Amino acid sequence: MKRKTKPIIRILQYTILVIAAIYAFYPVWFAILASGRLGERLYTLNILGMFIPTEWTFENYRVMLFERPFLTWLTNSLKVASITTIASLLVATSAAFALSRFRFKGRQFFLVLLLAISTFPGLLSLVAIAQVLTALGLYGTHVGLILAYTTGTLVFSTWNLKGYFDTIPIDLEESAMLDGCGPLQAFILIALPLARPALAVTAILGFMAGWGDFVFASVLVPAPDSMKLAVPALYALANSMSVPWGYFAAGAVIVIIPTILVYLSMNRYFEGGLTLGGVKG
Amino acid sequence: MSGWLGKRKWITITLFLLPTIIAILIFNIYPILLNSYVSFTNRNKFHPNPDCDIFLTNLLDPLCWKAFEQNAPRGIGQPYTLAEPLFSNYDTLMGKLFQPEALIAVLLLLITFLPLFGANYLGKRQDRKINSQISKGMVWVIGFLVTIALFFLLNVPEAISKLMQTGDFIVVVFRTILFVALRVPLTFVIGLALALILNSDIRGKTFFRVVLFIPWGASSVAILMALVWQFLFRQQGTINQLLDLIGINGPIWLNNPILAFGVVVLADIWFSYPFFMVSILGALQSIPGELYEAAEVDGANWWTQLSKITLPLIRPAVLPAAVLTSITAFQMFGTAFAITAGGPIQGAGKPGATEFVMVYAFKQIFQSQNFGRATAFAVLVFIMLFIATLYSLRVTRITKGAYE
Question: Do A38 and A168 reside in the same domain of the chain?
């Protein structure tokens, strides 16, 4: 249907959009500007410099990349987040397969139990988790952190994948089984490729759980510097009085911009890959 | 699936669920058990160690497990024991809630909000009737007016301030609920407005869509972006410099309880509105355009179209999202922690103005090391979240029918 919108309404719409766009983009833009500025402070008293790059230098980036253990932190974060992603995909897919393709006693109960215990906030179980990891000798290691993250993403991943598998008709697999496939083989060959959007969303959210987390990483791997993850290390950097803010800004930009780009490129998956009735966040 | 039967089926199921079960047992169920147990003890920084002769302590505390005795470092101090009396941690948090004065205050609050529930009920009944005498909007207006009248008649502000003196639990939870009640509707309105505009045939839609989507990406590294928000509102931050330019001497935002609260809400909306926007946009695109054409023919104006067509039709998609974001907002931690760290302080030993549920718990555990009180708090929060999640399941199930 084509109808002319009144000019006054168009102007109003554009005004709202422009204000919202400034609101959405300015904090990120502010961090980018600050990362190219030298000096002890994150802000500048030159008001123009708050909005357009009046001065620009890569000095902060150079210091962060070559004189600080920032690359190590990034590598640690990438390592932990990637292994978390793979582990949580494997565990959640296998659980979701069992919950979606088999009918058994206690299935509904198990699903609700998963949801119920996941309402206990992760932050509050942190002390207990730290104690268990200490007992297992995994406190302060990346393995312990990966285990904690993987479990943390498990409930969401399992529910989301199970919901998506349910929407894939089982007839396809059954006809493959008539041709001599086993149930598992049929599932892997036929259902999994069809579930690609859900797997992608699960993977990306699993990755972000490890990549962006602050509390678990700062409590479970508090030291030394060479073991730290990027986000808690940057947070500590911003809160230490002796470090120029520009360093923090440069580090933050290096972490934030790729994250935003990944989300933007995954945009269409988010609309299709989160299943109805599953847990959305 | 009929591929495997009998024993073989059960073995398969067990094998596929085993990793999940083990992980859940160690990292979810065990912490809940230990937490609940510790909430009945006096464990804190003066009593950090377990007394392994006590039943349950020797079972639950890893420091008492034979296999791990060498691995476990012990703190200096007395062993912790069961609290005396048993519920004393809960008592400090919300004990005074059960005294007559506080109970009366709770009753007053309930009476005040009763008309709203009544309006909701009546409104639904009116909806079902074909030729209703009173319109639904009218019922709601009356409900609101009665509530406002009762609010002043029963002196609700005083009742609230009385409740605030019953312990940290009510203070923190009340403040968090206030936060959720501000943040979620505002996020919804912003998301709806933007989605409606982006769904029209406006030029440059793709560009705005991409820009408006940015905060969602940034929200996964929330703590770093929250720090940036803090910088914007510092005494010499961008906001105050801009105010300076037009001759206003900006306030010290983060030192003022109300302003600091507002800043946290503003920053948290920034993180969360894209999710609503995308959900609503998806729902809008599934509404057939003929409905609006028909409404146009019948002479319906913009507002009637919005309230009679758009809102009812996006409800099944938006309601579960709203309930779930409410639960997430209730557990918000990073934004408040990075921007204000729970402050500004409102007197010694009292929770700060932006000390929401998770921030309070974090500070009790990691800064004061009041494990006993913190775990009691955790158990209370768990009960609340558990009920909320059951409710959200119901809502999701109800609305699911709309798609099938």
Answer: no
Least confident window among B17-21, B136-140, B270-274: B136-140
- Answer yes or no: is A258 within a domain: yes
Count other Cβ atoms within 10 Å, centred on residue B135.
11
Q: Look at residue A50 and tell me if it is in a domain.
A: yes
Query: What is the value of pTM for the model shown?
Result: 0.84
In a domain, A280, yes or no: no
Q: A46 and A75: one domain?
A: no
Q: CA separation (Å) from A38 to B75, B225, B365? A: 44, 20, 38
Contact A131 B34 (CB under 8 A): yes
| A208: closest chain B residue by CA | B220
Residues 157-196 of B with CB under 8 A from A: 190, 193-194
Residues 6+ apart with CB under 8 A from B174: B160, B163, B164
On the question of pLDDT at A132 being above 90, the answer is no
Q: Are residues A123 and A170 in the same domain?
A: yes
> Which CATH number fits the domain that encloses residue A83?
1.10.3720.10
Is the sign of the CA dihedral B133, B135, B140, B142 positive or negative? Answer: negative
pLDDT at position A275 is: 47
Instruction: Assess whether A195 and A84 both reside in one domain.
Output: yes
Is A24's CB within 8 Å of B212's CB?
yes
**Do A46 and A99 belong together in one domain?**
no
CATH number of B167-403: 1.10.3720.10
Which residues in chain A have their CB less than 8 angstroms from residue B397's CB? 277
Q: Identify the bridge partners of residue B49 per DSSP, sorted by sequence position.
A: B79
Give a yes or no: residue A73 inside a domain.
yes
Query: Do residues A40 and A84 share a domain?
Result: no
Nearest residue of chain B to residue A245 (CA atoms): B231
Amino acid identity, position B317: A
Q: Which residue type sits at B224?
A: L
3-state SS of B68-130? HCCCCCCCCCCECCECCCCCHHHHHHHHHHHCHHHHHHHHHHHHHHHHHHHHHHHHHHHHHCC
Report CB contact under 8 Å: B197, A16: yes
**Residue A60 confidence (pLDDT) above 80:** yes
Q: Kindly state the average pLDDT of the residues B371-389.
A: 86
User: Does one domain contain both A264 and A132?
Assistant: yes
Domain ranges of chain B: 6-88, 100-165, 167-403
pLDDT at A281: 32
A15 & A92 share domain: no
Residue B223: which of A28, A208, A231 has the nearest Cβ? A231
Which residues of chain A neighbour B10 with C-beta distances below 8 Å?
104
B359 close to A (CB below 8 A): no
- Tell me which long-range contacts B51-59 makes (C-beta under 8 A, separation of at least 24): B51/B79, B51/B80, B51/B81, B54/B81, B54/B82
Partner A contacted by B271 (CB < 8 A): no
Q: Does B338 contact A at CB distance below 8 Å? A: yes
Number of domains in chain A: 2
Which has more pLDDT, B137 or B23? B23
What's residue B187's pLDDT? 93
Q: CB under 8 Å to B206, separation ≥6 — which residues?
A: none
- List the domain range (segments joined by +) for residue A41: 7-57
* DSSP for residue B1: -
| Residue that finishes a domain, picked among A15, A30, A57 | A57
